[in-house]
Amino acid sequence: MSVAQDTKGIVVERTMPHPPEKVWRALTQGPLVADWLMPNDFEAKVGHRFRFRMEPPPPGGWDGIVESEVIEVEPPSRLVYRWDTTGEGGLRTVCTWTLTPEGSGTQVRMEQTGFRPHEELNRRGAKMGFTQFLEGLERVAGTL
Hints:
By secondary structure, the chain is of the alpha+beta class. It has a single domain, classed as START domain (Alpha-D-Glucose-1,6-Bisphosphate, Chain A, domain 4, 2-Layer Sandwich), CATH 3.30.530.20. It has helices at about 20-30, 30-35, 120-140; strands spanning about 10-15, 50-55, 65-75, 80-85, 90-100, 105-115. Strands 1-6-5-4-3-2 form a six-stranded antiparallel sheet, with helices on one face. Helix 2 crosses helix 3 (about 120-140).
């Protein structure tokens, strides 16, 4: 999936003390993803359309639903999916997760691309959000 030239992205990285296989499970099994990200109907299959759901934040505008589709799956190292929020001013971005073995742990890199120039506030919010989500991903992977 191509991203327009005038867009920006975010990158969030974290080294986790868990092997890639454990991080991959926490990243790709729907019930585990719900523990660190959002309730979902995710399946790690190319072409699978799914939703992340959460309570809509006040004051409105976003309905709390992220429409998504799996674009690429390369266990246990790469996962790519669309991240499209619905509602007023919805985002149309792509999330790419890359897991790289590092010693006995894993370097986790999440890149979200496709933020348009007028979405700078959303881009900054996504960076803060995914920084916290990666903490949750590490916590869940540590329970496996």
